[in-house]
Amino acid sequence: MAESLSLPSNGSARTDTSADDARRDEQAVSKANESIAIRPKRGKLTLLSRRIYNALLYHAQRAGVDQPSYTILLSELIDDARFNSNNTELLKTHIRDMQATTIEWHTSIGEQRRWTSTQLLGTVHIHERGRGSPCSITWSYPEPIRERLVKPAHYTKVFLEISAQMRTYAAAVLYELGARYLTSPGRLTMREDLIWWASVLTGRSDIESVDYRILHRDTIKKALIELDTLNDSFRMEVVEHKRGRKVEELQFRVIPKAQPTLQGLEQGGKNVFDLQLVERLVVIGFKRADAQDLYASTDEGALRAAVDLVEARQKNATLPPLDSPAAYLRDALRKGYAGQGGQGASVAREEPATAEPSLEEKMQRLRDEWEGQRIQQARTAFDAMGETERQAHIARFEAECLGELLGPVARSWQKQGVHSPVARSTFFRWLAGVLWPAPVTDSALLAFALERKG
Questions:
Q1: For residues 15 and 17, what is the distance between their CA atoms, to the nearest angstrom?
Q2: Which residues neighbour 228 within 8 Å (Cβ) at sequence distance 6 or greater?
């Protein structure tokens, strides 16, 4: 049976005082530049192991380089790593992964070159003193790299709160790389081959060959979108180096974002992710992930004009209904007639949706419509509940989901709760799953479709 700690649930952990919030916002680790783009030579690194590693390093640096080992309360590590679990067996698994992961450390001093192969962590002890007593954790670093980790000569400031918002390993790596190269003259990262980048961005040591199209689609593109969404300081773009038509090496360019004006700061800061626009895309018919991808890869003004166009087209009773509003929107973006006046607007009104949705797309749309009805039913059921039952659902939602929400969504929920225009749909989608946990069957979808036609 998994051991556990007596810790507050996520719901109560989110009710920190303003002083605690300030402390978390200011937590920064001085991460040695050599330790940012870690390419494991054996084993595998995960997003959570990277968070744990940064949190341990933060506390080691506060204690100083003269100590052979470091000790803190285990609850403090779990909080600073945003672990969101009190399962010590899971924590031990990630610690074992770090101890089993071999990394290479390259150092250059003048003409001298030094290569070191070592573990990420040395010996780790978890002290459990019995019921009612706090648990603690003691750890050390391999001696050859301990001083360079705890007191690095060349380092990058990595803020734990920003790093903790990243939801994929690749985005966490790119955040740290971007922070490192943001102040460099060319703002370009190192130039390496595809296998090197695939290993660094996935934390895997067993990669022997890479299909760049898959790496870009499944890892790089999603990580760049996530970074742009969650980080106010900069965004990044990939730089491809080709031999002929084949991509062989990559770099990343760091692009600073315009800082918020004083007026913007007084109004609560710059929200780089317009969640209401994303919600409008979802209503049109996009899957949420596709809506976020489209938002992040499209000029916001052009996208907003295209959404306005589609919504106006759908309200026009003199024209036949659109078979696929999402395809119509993509067509408007591709041909550039959204938001134009005069002749462009006339062309837009007459332009048909050229892409006939596939059977799979039609089924997915039907599932989305069914889910939308369930969400509305959940909202109605919630309004009919007593106050005690409503608060119980809210507390459970915060305990189970709040730590996994995008930063802007979580902050909006904390301020406005179920009245938040950007977070309430997430809550009612979750509530629908709680009230009706069984997955929808094909027969239920068929009945739903027939009912709508009738």
A1: 7
A2: 235, 236, 272, 296
